[in-house]
Design brief:
By secondary structure, this protein is an alpha+beta fold. It contains five helices and five strands.
Length: 138
Protein backbone atom coordinates (compact mmCIF):
# COMPACT_ATOMS: atom_id res chain seq x y z
CA UNK A 1 0.00 0.00 0.00
CA UNK A 2 1.22 3.49 -0.80
CA UNK A 3 2.51 5.57 2.09
CA UNK A 4 2.41 9.31 1.45
CA UNK A 5 3.48 11.84 4.08
CA UNK A 6 2.09 14.98 2.46
CA UNK A 7 -0.91 14.41 0.20
CA UNK A 8 -1.01 18.02 -0.97
CA UNK A 9 2.59 17.79 -2.19
CA UNK A 10 1.86 14.46 -3.86
CA UNK A 11 -1.06 15.95 -5.77
CA UNK A 12 1.09 18.89 -6.86
CA UNK A 13 3.71 16.43 -8.09
CA UNK A 14 1.05 15.17 -10.52
CA UNK A 15 0.04 18.75 -11.48
CA UNK A 16 -3.21 18.55 -9.51
CA UNK A 17 -4.28 21.55 -7.43
CA UNK A 18 -4.62 20.20 -3.85
CA UNK A 19 -8.07 21.45 -2.80
CA UNK A 20 -9.48 20.26 0.52
CA UNK A 21 -11.92 17.90 -1.19
CA UNK A 22 -9.24 16.40 -3.45
CA UNK A 23 -6.92 15.85 -0.49
CA UNK A 24 -9.69 14.11 1.49
CA UNK A 25 -10.69 11.90 -1.46
CA UNK A 26 -7.10 10.85 -2.13
CA UNK A 27 -6.48 10.29 1.58
CA UNK A 28 -9.56 8.04 1.69
CA UNK A 29 -8.30 6.03 -1.29
CA UNK A 30 -4.87 5.61 0.32
CA UNK A 31 -6.31 4.45 3.64
CA UNK A 32 -9.07 2.23 2.19
CA UNK A 33 -7.67 -0.09 -0.44
CA UNK A 34 -11.12 -1.63 -1.01
CA UNK A 35 -11.54 -0.48 -4.61
CA UNK A 36 -14.43 1.85 -3.72
CA UNK A 37 -17.12 3.20 -6.03
CA UNK A 38 -18.08 6.88 -6.29
CA UNK A 39 -21.06 6.18 -4.00
CA UNK A 40 -18.91 4.45 -1.39
CA UNK A 41 -16.48 7.38 -1.26
CA UNK A 42 -19.27 9.95 -1.16
CA UNK A 43 -21.11 8.18 1.69
CA UNK A 44 -17.93 7.95 3.79
CA UNK A 45 -16.86 11.58 3.29
CA UNK A 46 -20.14 13.54 2.96
CA UNK A 47 -20.75 14.00 6.69
CA UNK A 48 -17.32 15.54 7.20
CA UNK A 49 -17.45 17.67 4.04
CA UNK A 50 -20.90 19.31 3.75
CA UNK A 51 -20.07 20.86 0.36
CA UNK A 52 -19.14 17.50 -1.19
CA UNK A 53 -21.31 16.17 -4.01
CA UNK A 54 -21.24 12.90 -5.95
CA UNK A 55 -20.37 14.95 -9.02
CA UNK A 56 -17.31 16.37 -7.24
CA UNK A 57 -16.21 12.85 -6.24
CA UNK A 58 -16.70 11.59 -9.80
CA UNK A 59 -14.87 14.56 -11.36
CA UNK A 60 -12.02 14.27 -8.85
CA UNK A 61 -11.58 10.56 -9.57
CA UNK A 62 -11.64 11.26 -13.31
CA UNK A 63 -8.96 13.94 -12.82
CA UNK A 64 -6.84 11.59 -10.69
CA UNK A 65 -7.11 8.89 -13.36
CA UNK A 66 -6.20 11.29 -16.18
CA UNK A 67 -3.05 12.21 -14.25
CA UNK A 68 -2.13 8.58 -13.55
CA UNK A 69 -2.52 8.75 -9.79
CA UNK A 70 -5.28 6.08 -9.70
CA UNK A 71 -6.82 3.48 -12.04
CA UNK A 72 -10.43 2.61 -12.69
CA UNK A 73 -11.36 -1.05 -12.42
CA UNK A 74 -14.33 -2.40 -14.36
CA UNK A 75 -15.14 -5.83 -13.01
CA UNK A 76 -18.89 -5.57 -13.54
CA UNK A 77 -20.53 -3.79 -16.49
CA UNK A 78 -22.51 -1.43 -14.27
CA UNK A 79 -19.87 -0.75 -11.64
CA UNK A 80 -16.65 1.23 -11.78
CA UNK A 81 -14.27 0.85 -8.84
CA UNK A 82 -11.14 2.91 -8.19
CA UNK A 83 -7.71 1.63 -7.27
CA UNK A 84 -4.88 3.70 -5.82
CA UNK A 85 -2.42 0.91 -6.66
CA UNK A 86 -1.27 1.74 -10.20
CA UNK A 87 1.37 -0.97 -10.67
CA UNK A 88 0.55 -3.98 -12.87
CA UNK A 89 -1.58 -6.39 -10.86
CA UNK A 90 -4.79 -8.39 -11.14
CA UNK A 91 -8.12 -8.23 -9.35
CA UNK A 92 -10.22 -11.01 -7.80
CA UNK A 93 -13.88 -10.33 -6.96
CA UNK A 94 -15.66 -12.57 -4.49
CA UNK A 95 -19.08 -13.48 -5.86
CA UNK A 96 -20.45 -13.95 -2.35
CA UNK A 97 -19.29 -10.94 -0.32
CA UNK A 98 -18.40 -8.60 -3.22
CA UNK A 99 -14.90 -7.81 -1.89
CA UNK A 100 -12.16 -7.13 -4.42
CA UNK A 101 -8.63 -8.33 -3.77
CA UNK A 102 -5.39 -7.39 -5.53
CA UNK A 103 -3.01 -10.12 -6.64
CA UNK A 104 0.32 -10.07 -8.41
CA UNK A 105 1.11 -12.00 -11.56
CA UNK A 106 4.04 -12.19 -13.93
CA UNK A 107 3.04 -10.06 -16.91
CA UNK A 108 5.86 -11.55 -19.04
CA UNK A 109 4.56 -15.11 -18.52
CA UNK A 110 1.03 -14.27 -19.69
CA UNK A 111 0.16 -16.62 -22.56
CA UNK A 112 -2.25 -15.62 -25.33
CA UNK A 113 -2.75 -16.33 -29.02
CA UNK A 114 -4.45 -14.63 -31.92
CA UNK A 115 -2.84 -11.23 -31.34
CA UNK A 116 0.28 -11.62 -33.44
CA UNK A 117 1.52 -8.25 -34.77
CA UNK A 118 -0.79 -6.40 -32.35
CA UNK A 119 0.55 -3.76 -29.97
CA UNK A 120 -0.78 -4.33 -26.44
CA UNK A 121 -1.04 -1.18 -24.33
CA UNK A 122 -2.94 -2.54 -21.35
CA UNK A 123 -3.71 -5.93 -19.90
CA UNK A 124 -6.31 -6.36 -17.18
CA UNK A 125 -6.56 -9.67 -15.35
CA UNK A 126 -9.85 -10.05 -13.49
CA UNK A 127 -10.97 -13.23 -11.82
CA UNK A 128 -14.27 -13.98 -10.09
CA UNK A 129 -14.87 -16.70 -7.55
CA UNK A 130 -15.24 -17.19 -3.80
CA UNK A 131 -12.68 -15.66 -1.42
CA UNK A 132 -11.06 -17.75 1.31
CA UNK A 133 -13.14 -16.08 4.05
CA UNK A 134 -16.43 -16.95 2.35
CA UNK A 135 -15.16 -20.39 1.35
CA UNK A 136 -14.29 -21.20 4.97
CA UNK A 137 -17.85 -20.32 6.05
CA UNK A 138 -19.36 -22.92 3.66
Amino acid sequence: MKEIQNIGSELLRFDIKPSYQRIKIYDYLLKNNIHPTVDMIYKKLADGIPTLSKTTVYNTLKLFEEHGIIKSVNIEENEIRYDVQTHIHGHFKCEQCGAIYDFDYNYNDLKYSGLENFILNQTDVMIKGVCKTCASKN
